[in-house]
Fold this sequence. Notes:
The chain is an alpha/beta fold. The chain contains five helices and 14 strands.
Amino acid sequence: MAPRVAIVDYGVGNLFSILHACRTVGLEGWLAAEGDSFDNADAVILPGVGAFASAMDRLKQTGLAGTIKDWSAAGKPTIGICLGLQLFLSESFEHGHHTGLGLIDGSVRGLREAHPDRSIRVPNVGWRPIFRHHNSERRQPDQATAVFDGVADGSEFYFVHSYYTDVRDEAAIQFTSRFEDLQFCCAIAKGNIIGFQFHPERSSQQGLAIFANIKQMLETAS
């Protein structure tokens, strides 16, 4: 039986591209708009494109925020993409101060605010190289880090974002990228929690390789 992945449908996100990528590599994926839609899943993917505060409000209103936190606390694979990764963090400073899901210690901050001394153009859009974080080489491999098997330094992935994750939990950072002179975390893995600031579902063959690694990870764990 193919590993099963629930893709959280809370009104924001690149849902059908993620669903297509899952099915391309042999994952059984479906859109999950309610917590009980996770019941038969082996992993949950939280996607997202949009504003942090409204996305967090939507998760709370639907009860999905609590369900995702319970799912993660139970040690089950929990994956965030773009805004989904940002929602995993403790807090966001996007148009005010907002509390996140708190799965990873860190803050969401603006790319523009990181360059207060000059005018820059945001969002950060396009194919950008990613580089393995120095701490990741000293870590013991675990369930989540296997998702990055075969991802080489300098591999290019597709980004579109105006805010970035300032991750305080150094042990979680796997890859970084750059915007202007800012180096920022673009991929995390810690225990059962995985996240990407880039869009693997829009990153051609190298993105599909990550989804294939997710499938392998879930098959190994079953």
